[in-house]
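Thread: Newbie trying to understand structure tokens

Hi all, I'm a second-year student working on a class project, and my supervisor (Dr. K.) asked me to get a predicted structure for one chain before our next meeting. I've only ever worked with sequences, so writing a 3D structure as a token string is new to me. If someone could post the tokens and maybe explain what I'm looking at, I'd be very grateful. Here's the chain:
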Amino acid sequence: MGLQEQKQHFSVNLLDWYMVNRRDLPWRRHNNPYFTWVSEIMLQQTRVDTVIPYFNRFIGNFPTVQALAEAPEEDVLKNWEGLGYYSRARNLQAAARQVMELHGGEMPQDKQAVFALKGVGPYTAGAILSIAFNQPQPAVDGNVMRVLSRYFLIDEDIMKGSTRVLMEELAGELIPEGRARDFNQALMELGALVCTPKAPHCLTCPVMEQCSGRIAGRELTLPVKTKAKPPRPEQRLVAIVEGRGAHRGQVLVRQRPDTGLLARMWELPHVLAAPAAASKKAAPLADEPAMALLAGSLWAEGFAARPEGLATHAEHVFSHIVWSLQVYKCTEQDQSSELPLIAAEARAAYDAQAATREGTASSSAVSPESDTMHSSEPGTPDAQNISTSPNDGERLAPSDVSDLALSTPTLTGKGDGLTYRWIGPEDMDKMAFPNIFLKLISSYFAGAYDQVK
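---
Reply by user tm_fold:
Sure, no problem. This is what the structure looks like when written as tokens:
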């Protein structure tokens, strides 16, 4: 069988299989370009099963492009909370505003106009145009490149731009006339359900007969993919500061800067451990110097707090950084009192840490398009562990979010200039947190750290 017959075999059999085996997904039930767009943005680096409840909630709250464009940004982020890659949510809203301003609220059908929308790359543009408008545009993502690499026995590195161009040309040639919508979804479905990364189900594959990779025994070695550089480890010390007096029942949180990693999201105060503690394995810092450093960093921001003991260990993994977190329960102290830990040793530890900030800040950023992230937690005999869901954070764009109407006023850190607040459980549904901090704070309010060592 020649190449042309092999292509024909692929297209015909794949479509036949898809019409029988396609999943019933909420965004497939309506030929709504906005629904297609939202689903494709959510599905970037995220599993379908994870996306479904988020999609349903998001569409329920923002049913139209106009509703999304006009919504407060904090509401959009809150509806995205836990899904990760928060730049997707911000870009989606920014693009919705573009659609309102430039296209009268209707999704454009021109390739260049779709590609010009914020957060829309070649794959997403192809998916929107083919699925929403049945235009014969290729939509090539990792699943598609894996399928094509195996079926056509392509040895090119899929991390190279030239290989993507090759794949897009090939995928475009495979689209049957008038069937772009079904074909592109079939191709994605095959990669998700059958031609999986580590254990392809070749015996149930509708195109196995002419799969060159299977015939050559290469189905487990394809696609060729350059390994990504392993993420850089960072040991971080986190404070759960328990309020007293007017702040009883509350904890201290802060908002990250307008740009950079996890921009404008809320978090627990934390500090990078002293360089001497850093290693390839990001080994934990002993409790005494860790608590001294943490207390000193809080003092420098204008908050007196006494660390009481280790509450938990947690690990938060970006594509470029691994945060190994030592989380300490702390108690708010009177600002006028002299804390034993905030003395010469703590001050020196903090000063040493502060001196390294400038050198580490530039290397801590994560690029907008490559911030894959998951979370796990190392075992520890003397502390609880927090597990968080995948893909939780990235570099975000500046925003114009208005201050939340929370129960307490904002405070400005003396050293970093960040915004701090005291919050109670009732404030959790008004603020957007990275999943790791959401779980840590929720665990605190649930009493998980009442006893610490």
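A couple of things are worth pointing out once you decode it. The mean pLDDT is 84. Residues 272 and 360 are 9 Å apart (CA to CA). Feel free to ask follow-ups in this thread.
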